[in-house]
Design brief:
This protein is an alpha/beta fold and 411 residues long. It has two domains: 192 residues, Glycogen Phosphorylase B (Rossmann fold, 3-Layer(aba) Sandwich), CATH 3.40.50.2000; 168 residues, Glycogen Phosphorylase B (Rossmann fold, 3-Layer(aba) Sandwich). Helix content is 41%, strand content 20%. The protein has an eight-stranded mixed sheet, sandwiched between helices. It has a six-stranded parallel sheet with strand order 11-10-9-12-13-14, sandwiched between helices. Helix 5 packs parallel to helix 6. The longest helix has 18 residues. The N and C termini lie close together (9 Å). The model has no long low-confidence stretch (mean pLDDT 90).
């Protein structure tokens, strides 16, 4: 089995959405007899840690900016987030010639720890997640120093197909990001992109890299989640994920659903810049919304296991899926998906799912009676066998097999 070195952002103790995806692959490799090593941003005082499945984790020391950013992510105070956003924008302009990089020193921190690991044990393959870009640039450097080691560019987000809003012109952002993406594609032995961005990467711009490109879904489909989700509390609706006024705004979802939630409670496990919106509806509908804020992944999952319904809010101007959707699907429970963008990438995924309530928030006439009926009707969970067949590319084993095949070429 392969010895894999993963470069991630937040993996332990409070993993990011991308870190959770990396964790699934690292766990499978460890269970299959390989050794998994992880380098991630340090959100604890330890230098290294051996955790479940003997995965060995090394931490890079956080910068002052990263400490402020992390604190703001967990804070419920809008002014703290505003300060963090201001610092981020300032750093983007300071390092505009290196855009989208904002922490160049982080590259050397990852490389230095990577070098120590490579000198002490045999590493077959480096797997670098995007984002952040600093992780990918560190992996590029390690590959140049050790060309015999295989390198997988694992693009859980897309450098060049995100779109969205920003202070810098989109033409500048796309040009800068394409330049870095091409370097990663050229350097890596294999690149794994998400299926939701497949059309973008079949563009002629990427023609010379097609032979090294693979596509998968976020590796979060889990039979273990299905087994733990037997309880269905019809009075509980759970939302988990980031909320952002520009990309994933909860206003219309709350406006539509709250008047229909008789004897139900909405539990929000979230962070972002929408606390003022949430507070407004908490005052308007007292006792119906509980905002838990940013909590550990395990706590979120316990809420999902026992929920009756799972709320999903579609992205605007984004081609990427929220990875959480596959954890939702794994439960077999009813998902309420509220969207406004007809190009919402979640629609293609969720239309294959049986227990789904799709609400287009732009519809002139929303059938409130039908939504209310569905919210108050008992249902049977979708069978996992059927789920697994529909969403096999979201099974962590699928992505792991791609990485393992690349690693075998080096062994």
């Amino acid at each position: 089995m392969a010895n894999l070195l993963f470069l991630s952002d937040y993996y332990y103790k409070n993993a990011s959405a991308n870190g959770i995806c990396v964790e699934q692959i690292a766990n499978i490799n460890a269970k299959c007899g390989g050794q998994s090593y992880v380098i991630c941003s340090g959100n604890c005082n330890e230098i290294c840690k051996v955790c479940e499945n003997e995965i060995k984790i090394s931490f890079i020391k956080r910068s002052l900016y990263r400490k402020i950013y992390d604190y703001a992510s967990m804070s419920k105070f809008s002014f703290v987030k505003q300060i963090s956003n201001l610092i981020t924008h300032v750093l983007k302009f300071v390092y505009i010639w290196k855009y989208p990089m904002i922490e160049p020193r982080a590259i050397y921190k990852y490389v230095n720890i990577g070098e120590k690991i490579i000198k002490s044990v045999r590493i077959d393959t480096i797997v670098a997640q995007y984002k952040p870009i600093e992780v990918v640039l560190a992996a590029n450097k390690l590959k140049s120093l050790h060309p015999e080691i295989r390198y997988v560019f694992y693009s859980l987000d897309s450098l060049t197909s995100e779109g969205g809003n920003g202070l810098l012109p989109i033409s500048f952002r796309n040009k800068a990001c394409l330049k870095l993406e091409k370097i990663a594609l050229k350097t890596a032995d294999c690149s794994i992109f998400m299926n939701c961005s497949k059309a973008h990467y079949q563009n002629d711009v990427y023609l010379s890299y097609n032979s090294k490109m693979y596509f998968a879904d976020n590796p979060l489909l889990s039979y273990q989640i299905y087994q733990k989700s037997k309880e269905i509390d019809m009075k509980s609706i759970v939302f988990a994920g980031t909320l952002n006024k520009g990309i994933r705004n909860p206003e219309r979802a709350l406006q539509i659903l709250l008047p229909l939630m008789k004897n139900k409670k909405l539990h929000l496990f979230t962070h972002g810049d929408c606390n003022d919106i949430i507070s407004k509806y908490q005052m308007k509908y007292p006792g119906i919304i509980e905002n838990h804020g940013f909590v550990k992944h395990e706590e979120v999952m316990h809420a999902i296991y026992s929920a009756g319904f799972l709320l999903s809010i579609g992205n605007i101007n984004s081609s990427m899926n929220p990875s959480k959707i596959y954890e939702y699907i794994s439960t077999g429970k009813t998902i309420i998906h509220v969207y406004s963008d007809k190009n919402d990438p979640c629609l293609e995924i969720l239309k294959k799912y049986n227990n789904i309530i799709l609400i287009n928030s732009n519809d002139a006439r929303i059938d409130e009676q039908e939504i209310s009926r569905q919210l108050n009707t008992n249902y049977n969970r979708e069978q996992y066998l059927e789920i697994g067949e529909k969403y096999f590319m979201a099974d962590p084993q699928y992505t792991y097999n791609i990485i393992q095949n690349i690693s075998n070429k080096n062994m």
